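Revision sheet: structure tokens.
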Amino acid sequence: MALLMALLFAALLGEAGAVDCSAAYPLCNACAGSCVQGAGCFCGTDGSTCLPQTCDMDTLCCPDGLFWHTSANCCSLEPTCYPACMADEACKLPEGVCICNSTLHQGAQVTDVVPMFMCDEALITITVPKCLLEKLRYNPAGMHVRTPTVDCMNSYNQVLNGIRMWSEQILPVTGFCGNEVVINGTYTTYSNYLEIPAATINGIIYVPNLRYNFSCSYPRNILASLDTVINPISSTLTLSLGGASGVITVTMAAFWDSSYTNPITAVQQIDVGTTFYFGLSAASPDDGTFVLRADSCYATPVNDPNSPTRVNLITGGCSADQGVTTQVLMNGVAMSVFFSAESFAFDGISSVYVFCNTRLCVKAGGNCTACGNIAGRSAGSSGNIGVGPFTMSEIPELNFASQTVVSWTVLVSSLITLLSVRLM
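Predicted:
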């Protein structure tokens, strides 16, 4: 029995001693030491190297020649890989470094490479698989966009879903790193391409470079355009976020063009029948939680959103179709709302004001783009925002020589007046 206990004790000692912890340096807790990411661990007393008792850094917990073992929580001469290698990697010993597993991706083809493109508000990120590309004899570390200057070569490796990846980031800015831009009424689209060079192996290149075109579209921000003119016709509205903290500011303005780059100013007159463009934009980061929705928009002859004299432009989030040609370009999709309307004049009045009842809609609830007054779940407050006055130029006579087109609203108003006179 005594012999059995001795053998068991020896086995336990052997198991516990499976990793021989190094004593080449003092322990950090014995010399007021600390560890610095990417640099190592040092004593607080004299700056000499020390050994940590825990390792929560990605690399360099241990000095050169030693390896961190999570099973024993110490640095040892026994080679191992820390952090653990990814799913498509293998640990190369005795160096203790992770390399791509050469047994994987057998028979892989270029068509198996599927880049991921992320269009964030401030960055465009392109990501490709490291080991798959290296297996296909490419060099993902050297990938670049259209303009391969120093500022535009920001590739780095990261781990996504347990796989080592290479990523590149650029700014969504016109001309930056070769970005090409296309602007329409509601979106700005930045286009570029990612080029992945072939690897040079023993002085030989076996494959052609890869090129992937990509683009990211962002809702137009009308606020920047308002700074380009003096006294633009615009206004602001503050909406609360309800249960969440804070408020957001919504700006509404009118523009001459569908690219929303030429704001209408207070000193400009508008010819009846001209199509002009309205934009509402929320000065808040678009994190995908909320979208801006205009439930209704209408025109009045006076600066009063409660005026009974009005022409509906949008009802229930969609075109009202009540005589004035209105097109809803974007509503309930992002933190901007865009629509166009054909200008008109109220009989005997040269001024027109346009109001919109707007609110934040919870995107996760869906239906924020649907037509109807109950579309989407609201978040926080709603409110009326209006712009004006828009001064209509003198209404010209309708004649075939000038081919002037007058809004149907004006014509109907004139016909009603004429009929009233004849019946008296």
